[in-house]
Amino acid sequence: DTGVSQDPRHKITKRGQNVTFRCDPISEHNRLYWYRQTLGQGPEFLTYFQNEAQLEKSRLLSDRFSAERPKGSFSTLEIQRTEQGDSAMYLCASSSGHINEKLFFGSGTQLSVL
Amino acid sequence: AQKVTQAQTEISVVEKEDVTLDCVYETRDTTYYLFWYKQPPSGELVFLIRRNSFDEQNEISGRYSWNFQKSTSSFNFTITASQVVDSAVYFCALSVLNQGGKLIFGQGTELSVKP
Per residue in B34-50, pLDDT tens? Predict the structure, then answer.
């Protein structure tokens, strides 16, 4: 079990630029989740995948955000035309899909939009 | 809609003191799961415990214990004889059946244990 890995750990970008983050879940896990966490707050759900299918998207996920999991393995989260309000920690988590089991989280990607 | 409230934003204790972190949840579902996670300064969320709504037995694991009371919709977490390594942000979370296993988190309680 190598854990959930996220890349990059930190990303600094200028307002208006596009950014893409990658998440590699635990290999046998078929569910993958994206969360956003701002300073002093708990993680907020953004979206999740069952294999390659994106099954739910939060209202927090504006049309500037898109997530993919093309082969049911790794996932990418892209933010287009970044805004300063997008600055946050983006967390990825995975699970094997058993009923409401625990999620395994990665260390996150810290995004700073200048 | 579901909600988790952790009213204590920050707690500071001296090493060896006992400390209780409060968690209150809201849901209309009868089947749900409650979790606690620890987030040390490194940032990675570490799983501590998962309980389902049909099991109200309290649980103890070493210095950690959890008190689940459906009557008050609470799932409190106690650390006995706290240590400096317990310093972290602790999150309570809720997951309901048939919603893809997603977790709804509280705002977190930052625990600082001083030597």
Answer: 999 999 988 899 999 99
Low-confidence ranges of chain A (pLDDT < 70): 1
Q: With left for phi above 0 and alpha for psi between -120 and 50, is residue B73 left, alpha or beta?
A: left
Beta bridge partners of B110: B10, B89
Structure tokens at A66: 């898109």
Cβ neighbours for B104, distance < 8 A, ≥ 6 positions apart: A45, B2, B3, B4, B93, B94, B95
Decide if A99 and B101 are in contact by the 8 Å CB cutoff.
yes
Residue A33 in contact with partner chain B when CB distance is under 8 A? yes
Min Cα–Cα distance to chain B from A49, Å:
9
Q: How much of chain B, in percent, has pLDDT values that exceed 90?
A: 86
Beta strands A44-50 and A53-57 are antiparallel
Task: Using an 8 Å CB-CB cutoff, list residues of chain B that contact chain A.
Answer: 4, 6, 9, 32-33, 35, 37, 42-45, 47, 50, 52, 91, 93, 95-97, 99-108
- Give how far Cα B58 sits from Cα of A87, B35, B69, Å: 39, 13, 9
Rounded CA-CA distance A36/B10 in Å is 21
Question: What does the pLDDT look like over A18-42, one tens digit per residue?
Answer: 999 999 999 989 999 999 999 999 9
User: Which residue in A has a C-alpha nearest to residue B106's C-alpha?
Assistant: A42
CB atoms within 10 A of CB B92: 29
pLDDT score at B81: 97
